[in-house]
């Protein structure tokens, strides 16, 4: 078999996988809102340990894996832009999942300037339609 002869099948498999990664978003009321209760934009957080408090109005919180109309769970984006809104939210140090239905969590950040933003998603971590995300805020952890 010539070198590179597997290119077409691998590309075809990659295209099939990419097509299955995109999902139809579940509906959410137009008046639903997600927001950060704490911390506030521009807040200085000495020591870098703090409670993030997450707010939601006109929708409900449910753990991941529980499919129920107009519900979902919070994801906190730290120092990250919004991910693609038609795909599962990544799960890493910049995309924290609160799949147990938490509305507050204690986190710790190193010294520096950080951005925080909430993104609400359905039972399988895909943002709703319309997508619910908060204003991006900046906090400062002094050295």
Secondary structure elements and pairings:
Layout: H1 7-21, E1 33-38, E2 49-57, E3 60-61, E4 71-78, E5 95-97, E6 104-108, E7 112-121, E8 127-133, E9 137-141
Parallel strand pairs: 3-4
Antiparallel strand pairs: 1-2, 2-6, 4-5, 4-7, 7-8, 7-9
What does this structure look like?
By secondary structure, this protein is mainly β. The chain has one domain (7-141): Immunoglobulin-like. The protein contains 1 helix and 9 strands, in the order αβββββββββ. The protein has one helix at 7-21; strands spanning 33-38, 49-57, 60-61, 71-78, 95-97, 104-108, 112-121, 127-133, 137-141. Strands 3, 4, 5, 7, 8 and 9 form a 6-stranded mixed β-sheet that branches. A 3-stranded antiparallel β-sheet has the order 1-2-6, with no helix packed on it. β7 (112-121) and β8 form a beta hairpin. The protein is elongated and about 45 Å long. It starts with 6 loop residues before the first helix and ends with a strand. The model is unreliable at 1-21 (pLDDT under 50).
């Amino acid at each position: 078999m010539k070198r590179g002869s597997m290119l077409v099948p691998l590309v075809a498999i990659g295209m099939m996988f990419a097509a299955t990664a995109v999902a139809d978003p579940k509906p959410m009321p137009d008046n639903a809102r997600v927001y950060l209760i704490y911390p506030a934009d521009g807040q200085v957080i000495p020591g870098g340990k703090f409670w993030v408090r997450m707010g939601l109005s006109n929708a409900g919180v449910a753990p991941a894996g529980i499919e129920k109309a107009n519900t979902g769970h919070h994801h906190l984006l730290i120092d990250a832009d919004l991910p693609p809104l038609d795909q599962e939210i990544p799960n890493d140090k910049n995309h924290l999942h609160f799949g147990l239905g938490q509305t507050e969590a204690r986190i710790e950040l190193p010294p520096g300037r950080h951005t925080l933003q909430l993104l609400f998603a359905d039972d399988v971590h895909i943002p709703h339609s319309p997508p619910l995300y908060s204003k991006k805020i900046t906090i400062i952890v002094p050295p």
